[in-house]
Records
---
Amino acid sequence: MQTLIVILTMLTLTFGIPIADAGEATPMAQDPKVEARLLAISEELRCLVCQNETLAASRAELANDLRVEIRRLIVEGKADKEIMDYLVARYGDFVLYRPPVKPSTWLLWFGPFVILAASIAGLLFYLRKRTARLGNSGGETLSEADLAEAHALLDEIGDRK
Amino acid sequence: MKRFLIPLMVFAVLVGFLAIGLMRDPHEVPSPLVGKPAPVFSLPQLATGAADFSPQQMRGKVWLLNVWSTWCVSCRAEHAYLVELAGQTQIPIIGLNYKEVRGDGQLDARKLSPAEEMQLVRKRANAWMAEHGNPYQISALDLDGRVGIDYGVYGVPETYLIDREGVIRFKQIGPLTPEAMQTRILPLIQKLEPRS
């Protein structure tokens, strides 16, 4: 019985409070389709106040206002692209978690691949040089005298056993 | 010795990038509105509580639009300088009071009627001006922050420099400092309005 009470308390604490809070942040939550779109859009957007959070996750005042604004635009029948453009026009590309591909972001998008390609080229170049070097020095065979000496040493070990 | 040269160079370049990255303020997001016409609005004025301030009224003037609020801590720091600036120069400073009641986390604005909210906003803003001085020719009241969204406001205080044609020329994020005024804004104003 006691365990049950503890479990129920824990459940209420973990799930009860966010549910109670959700009502305050979403004053216009009636249409689940609108809410689904709002969530999808706001997960692609950055909250400008707490910059490492999405607009969907942030509890900042501005994030709340912007969600209300996005909801209004959805209800007005705006397309996702139009809503994104609306926010970019006001806050810049920084609000997008996926920055658009354009000359000023080429380094961002293609830089890692350029570095990868350069590293692979460098590695291949080094390996080729290394095989060439080993091919010259390591490929030499032992002279007759060296071979005889090696045999003599091995025999000596064999004798001691 | 030579084998350490390349890793050392790579490390130096990396340190260079990190140093630049660390010295930049991530909270200063460049505004896409600089160089674009200032968004149009019409909002009630603090003095009367009636709807009659719009940026078009400032056509032909180079002016500053300062976003402020009494709950904003940095505005407190900035305010004394604004008052000083208003006394020293001829540049009109227009205030945009941002979410005076709704932005204050200690108040629950949902319980207020629109008339009550307006009354409270004016009471708070006027008390603030009486105490700290009034640098503004006009203060417009953005009760719900909708105009703030159009201007891309994300952290009060913010200040916009708007030219005679109504184009935004500069945006200061955070408090307006004497340094920013001297090095960035005044030279721009000189260029936009050669006679002053």
---
Amino acid sequence: MVETIVFYTLSALILGLGVAVITTPNTVHSVLFLVMNFLCVAVIYVVLEAEFLAVIQVLVYAGGIVVLYLFVVMLVNLKRDPEAHQDPRRLSLVGLALAGAVLLELAGIVVYSYSREPSAPVAAAAASPVQGNVEQIGWLLYTDYLIPFEVASVLLLVAMVGAIVLAKREL
Amino acid sequence: MAIEAAPMFDTDELVLNMGPQHPSTHGVLRVILRLNGERVVDADVVIGYIHRGIEKLTENRDWTQIILLTDRMDYVSAATSNLGYCETVEKLMEVEVPRRARYIRTILAELQRVASHCLWLGTHAMDIGAMTVFMYAFRERELILDLFEEYCGARLTYNCMRIGGLPLDIPTGWGRKVRAFCDVMDSRIPEYEELLTNNRIWLERTRGIGVISGEAATALGLCGPPLRGSGVYRDVRKDEPYAAYDEFEFDVPLGTNGDTYDRYLIRLEEFRQSLRIIRQAVDGMPDGPVMGKVPRLIKPKAGETYHAIESPKGELGYFIVSDGRSTNPYRLRVRPPSFCNLQGLKPLIIGHLVADVVALIGTIDVVIGEVDR
Amino acid sequence: MIDLVIIPLFKIAVVLNGVLVSVTFMVLLERKVIAWAQSRLGPMRVGPWGVLQAIVDPIKLILKEDITPTKADKWMFTLAPILSLVPALVVFSVVPFGGDALFYITDINVGLLFIISVTSIGVYGIILAGWASNSKYPLLASLRAAAQLISYEIAVTMTLVSVILTAGTLSMVGIVEAQQETGFWFGFVQPVAFVLVFIGGLAETNRIPFDLPEAEQELTGGFHTEYSGMRFALFFLAEYANMIVIAAVVTALFWGGWLRPFPSVDALFPSVGALSFLNLAFLDLIPSWVWFFGKMFVFLYLFIWIRATLPRYRYDQLMRIGWKVLIPIALANIVVTAVVKVWLL
């Protein structure tokens, strides 16, 4: 009961903050709403008893990535004229279509997950031979999800190389 | 791989006003910096915030009264300003200064050099973040101020010389106290060195920072330690001896790289050389009067002259014109070392970071009171 | 009810007040120690040997006028000091001050990560302070701070991974207990990690030689240039609270936390009964929290001592040390630790 109330309150907060992020005129305020958003998501993880994920969420997103956002936002000249927002190459229709596709996908996931027994991932976790939050995540990452994990790290490596190439014009 | 450097973002330069009220511009110096990130692209040095019109004031003071105006130029080394002015007038009047007075003047000037370098060392180290050296250096400067207080009663603006000699003979036992101070100072210099000379951070902050070649330094008209740091041999005490410098042995330290570290090393060596001069002067102190034969009313004959001395900051010159009729100068012009060295600031700081700017203001050792006058 | 609410609340109250009071005395200690290092006396006027200065300073700050610059972003300007102080205080909830459950507020299974992640939130306080002031020096300072804190956070976190590998747990209490079990403080097992964490700690608390975000000689006070009164005091509290956090973390992770010295003689020489006097059993009489605070004090003193001795690094040098020295060493340390842990033990 308590869990449900907390969950819906948090979800409402997260959605509200998400709306605030994209509607605030001030970019720095918007970034801060994003941080609060991430913190609320972390609380949801705590409610789901995934403390490790919650802490990592705070560490990586709130404490790391968004700081870099803020860094960039502060550097970029914000007092630019509104004409910058009227991009002639703006493709409103394509954007609308893509948003609709994402919405459909989300709806599909919801319908699909309700039509199945929700016990499969829980069973997988219970079957893992280790106890504890951190250990279970480690176990899953290095057994069942080894290939996605490695692919993700290669992706990060590519991003890093790309960033260096962009930043250092002459190698 | 060379991709053409098309700007991806607006790269506006940030204009930063450093000073006139800033903790490390040594007074009211104002530097307008144009920054790209933290790198200085362009700089504009603005002076004049404590201009008091000392040169103009002198035209309405009689020759003796001007001595106390010279105190107010380089207020951290008033004795050398006094000395330079008095010697210039003496040169114009062709007055013979007694040997004892010349010895005492040398001691005072060298004590002043040590005091001024103490202040420089403390503030320079403070600018780079080493706060303890500041206290140590001021502890020794205090001892010198005590010596000056015992001699002339003042601790900052001494007014301690007169045209033709000195107002007072040294008090009994003063020479012994000066000797004792030399010994104390000798033991304290290693303390500074221990904190700074081989400190990795200090080396990284000063080595290769603000490099200026000998030719460039000469072309800019730099003088004193900033010039000698670039390896140019120029010391008025050796080249055109005044006071009693021709009777003492001392070395002129020279740098090789012309960077901030070399200028630091040179000033530390000048501590030792100054102490060496003071010891020789105290030991060889001749007897005799301290005031030469000068008329009651000082009124040099019509003419003009230029005379320079080596102040702690560099070559301090006075150019005076007397019309021979009034009891005040027709024109007095000062060639202040701080002003000339400040010329070097802009070429030194361009291309460096903001943190280096304060280090470089420190390394050329300016006193704004002398720049603006 | 008592176990769930009252005792934790009581502990929180004690820890919060303890931290805030110790911060004021920490300031006094810093002033005194630096004064002695510089052959001065330090504060002497208020109370015997200036002891009451610790009380007078906060009073002065509270009574001062609290100025908000006209063109500042008022909300952010107020939020920034709060954002920098709160994480610094929250972290104390998982610091184990003693061996008994009475001496820590809670022990969560991801304690160490919790400390790292919460302190990483503290960056916002500094960045927003610089941005909200709408002034150039604070802006430069907050740019420096953002880059510096993120770089050193990476280095410190990577270094802590090798400690976690050694201990096999993320819980703060668990790490100290692991040191008790192995009989060695991790400071001896992981000396490289200790040095890295300490250097990183200096950088994360903006202490000399890494105090660039507030370098008063360059940036006239850095991010808190425009702050006055109590809002400035909050930054001050945050900085010193962070120092205490670093000292506490270093104590717990590397120097045995609340454990007394020489626990390992028995473990080292189990056969030699004659050496049992070396075990120094009488040290057990000293309560565990005394050991913890004693060790913490040593590190706090080290912080102050360094401040009195060293000059300041330049921005680019600081970043070079972070990325080109600390992070590679930290990575190498992880690899070595993992190899030793898997194949040699």
---
Amino acid sequence: MSAQTLYDKLWQSHLVHEEPDGATLLYIDRHLVHEVTSPQAFEGLRLAGRKPRRPAAAVAVPDHNVPTTNRAGGIADPISRLQVETLDQNCADFGIVEFKMEDVRQGIVHVIGPEEGLTLPGMTVVCGDSHTSTHGAFGALAFGIGTSEVEHVLATQCLVTKKSRAMRVNVEGELGHGVTAKDVALAIIGKIGTAGGNGYAIEFAGSAICGLSMEGRMTLCNMAIEAGARAGMVAVDDKTIDYVKGRPYAPTGKQWDQAVDWWRTLVSDADAVFDQEVHMDAAAIVPQVTWGTSPEMVTSVDGRVPDPADAPSEVKRSDWERALAYMGLAANTPIEKIAVDKVFIGSCTNSRIEDLRAAAAVVKGRQKAASVKLAMVVPGSGLVKQQAEQEGLDRIFLAAGFEWRDPGCSMCLAMNADRLEPGERCASTSNRNFEGRQGQGGRTHLVSPAMAAAAAVAGHFVDVRKF
Amino acid sequence: MRAFTLLDGLVVPLDRANVDTDAIIPKQFLKSIKRSGFGQNLFDEWRYLDHGEPGQDASNRPKNPDFVLNQPRYQGAQVLLARENFGCGSSREHAPWALEDFGLRALIAPSFADIFYNNCFKNGLLPIVLDAAIVDQLFRETEATPGYALQVDLERQNVTTPAGESFGFDVDAHRKYCLLNGLDDIGLTLQQADKIKAYEERRKAEAPWLFV
């Protein structure tokens, strides 16, 4: 057999049937479900008189609409509440395990999947959520789907899809002090653009990627979709296997050994050929800050807001102009001169224990700037929250004037009560700086947790390497 | 799903790149548990001058006269002309639901985001990829010509301008078949239940931990 990429191996092992034109029936091992993109799918099943083929393959959690304060008081917004109650009812009706709002295991779907061992190497993982690419960090094929496909997977445990092309992004060398997986992700997007990965599955490789923790790899794969790729992935190594071992849904005993034997093969063969290769020098990456309304509108913290006059094309020039107008920024402003109103540390990109530790390390013994109206920390899950509290991180944040919240998607997309007001500027560890993403008229700058924490203390962006 | 065969539709040009699904349908409308009624909130933050909330009657809301979909000459448009990477961002199928509910049937752009592109086909919407230079030409012609309409023929896989110029486009055979016939593919997949069962049996032996 010719040399295979990791993606080839994952694809091949889940292929149920392939038509001559490449349309493939692909088997899905794990289906994660949340309240926003599933109600119409369950309704579709009911209307057609269908049942889930393998309810045990699906696990559900409410995360987008849940409040991050006063959890015991329930959801105040009746429309949000109905959506979560609808998920509860659907899971009860169709026999699907759900971690409900008051369960300590509840959290952002892309945090709890790996945390519970629901995500395992070699799996196909789907969810009605574009950031499903996160789970690729485990050497899994994971991608987001729409609601029609949520229904399709529930009914058939398969998807009709076509293989993407394969891209490898090689990041070689060592990351500098204060430079994180988030900065690597933003630097990659800055290089290839938000459409650079369209039609591709991306494997992240190279010594800098091997050096990342599982949390860091999740952050990186999470942002693959912001580069346009449905799926991002990293090969299996000891870190992967160590992370999975002992998780509640991970295999045990003889099955564990059998699984590990297979997982060890989940790497691209040495002579595997990719449709495209991208090379990055880890040492050249510095902390990143986005300045516009697309993740590709990004620069280094020591840089400046670009001048639309320098844009590479006419379409880009008008995009940059529109972005600067929306963001309330003048061309050539130094990034470190940009003051922030709010700081959000959380989201499926950066709400895991390592992220909270990195932010707390910056905040420790310091105070939130008086000019910053709100600095909030939203752990990715109840278990992350619990662990952070055991480590005393909550006390560090609270002593510095930050708010310590309950887990959920929160102000990444502001479907719950956490949002920006028009014109407010936010240093955010989330993944999208789109217009209105964090609240209508809100202005989002994407950064790493350490950079967000430093901005909260300084009141403006600062280079965390010198902080 | 509504079938798509042949369309002769008025074109509306949306001249910006990287239009994301948050812009197509903002998050507050995703709280709905229904599949219909999203058209009035399509591009809500660009289309209206006030802030929209779900359940609100949009007919009395102040419209942004500068936004292209509000301009009189584009009323009734069925073809949306867009720029690179249209539909990027979230997987929300509410985006194609809103476009379809608004009355759009075909979308033309130099590129689409993968998940969005896929979601369109599940909802009777045809996303068409044409070369950037051709899209540029269509933008110029649309803006210069009131009433500019394009003929979209899915069977023949081409787009024809009023001047008779024709551009071919690619579409996967399976997607084309489903769209031409208005078929949703769950029924088709269930016809392959024996193959799925055989896969599961084989896989259970190889990787039993996946079936606990």
